[in-house]
Design brief:
252 residues, alpha/beta, 15% strand, 12 helices, globular, binds phosphoenolpyruvate
């Protein structure tokens, strides 16, 4: 397999420190034998530091859910890449649709976040995806391509090679309405083609995750598509059974 699968859990605004540590303990116990898959969890900011300590020596990596592009200064409420690295993050989500829709994140700000993440030594997971209205208007490719182009804009070859992309149709997030494997594969193929236009080799190795109501029951079929290299999981990442079930559904 050219691309190592990745299963990432986005906990969103869920989990006190106590709850997060309890879930981490269960995940470690359940997943400690997995060697052929990158497993990533993204707890809330407040749990990152204690969770990082509990993940030491494990096969589970830590992600933040957002990053601000300035390094330090008068930016109330913001968290920089260097602070995320300091507490043990290896990855960061960029441009999640909830950030775009609820917190005013734009194409331009997602580009700044991508550059800041890479400059700090974090691997960005760039989230792209169309709304239901955009899909119904036949604009899926155009919208996803614009988000992708903005996120990858001005990255060096070495930076581009590190990026992970997550295709998350907004209409499938938290709705229980999963994209069909064919619908997802079609967009993943489009994304890979677009990366190929920039660099043929990076297009072969870049991981493109699918996100949107992934569950153990639908994961195997989605993950067996040729251009789906893993999953970004919201709701089902909050329970050890369902998250581990998705990891166990990866093709082997
Ligand atoms: C997400 O928020 O990234 C997501 C995919 O959520 P869910 O799995 O709950 O649809």
């Amino acid at each position: 397999m050219i691309r190592r699968p990745m299963i990432a859990g986005n906990w969103k605004l869920n989990g006190t420190v106590t709850e997060s540590l309890a879930l981490v303990r269960e995940l470690r116990n359940r997943l400690d034998k997995v060697r052929d898959c990158d497993i990533v969890i993204a707890p809330p900011y407040t749990a990152l530091h204690p969770v990082a300590a509990r993940l030491e020596g494990s096969n589970i990596a830590l992600a933040a859910q957002d990053i601000y592009w300035e390094g330090s200064g008068a930016y109330t409420g913001a968290v920089s890449g260097s602070l995320l690295k300091e507490v043990g993050c290896a990855y960061v989500l960029v441009g999640h649709s909830e950030r775009r829709q609820l917190f005013g994140e734009t194409l331009e700000s997602s580009s700044r976040r991508m550059k800041a993440a890479l400059a700090s030594g974090l691997v960005p997971i760039l989230c792209v995806g169309e709304t239901l209205a955009e899909r119904q208007a036949g604009r899926t490719d155009e919208v996803v391509a614009a988000q992708l182009d903005a996120g990858l804009m001005d990255l060096s070859h070495a930076q581009l090679a590190k990026v992970v992309v997550a295709y998350e149709p907004v209409w499938a997030i938290g709705t229980g309405q999963v994209a069909t494997p064919a619908q997802a594969q079609q967009v993943h193929d489009m994304i890979r083609e677009r990366v190929r236009a920039r660099d043929v080799d990076i297009a072969k190795t870049m991981r493109i995750l699918y996100g949107g109501s992934v569950k153990p029951e639908n994961a195997a079929e989605l993950l067996s598509q040729p251009d789906i290299d893993g999953a970004l999981v919201g709701g089902a990442s909050l329970k050890v059974e369902s998250f581990a079930g998705i990891v166990e559904a990866r093709p082997r």
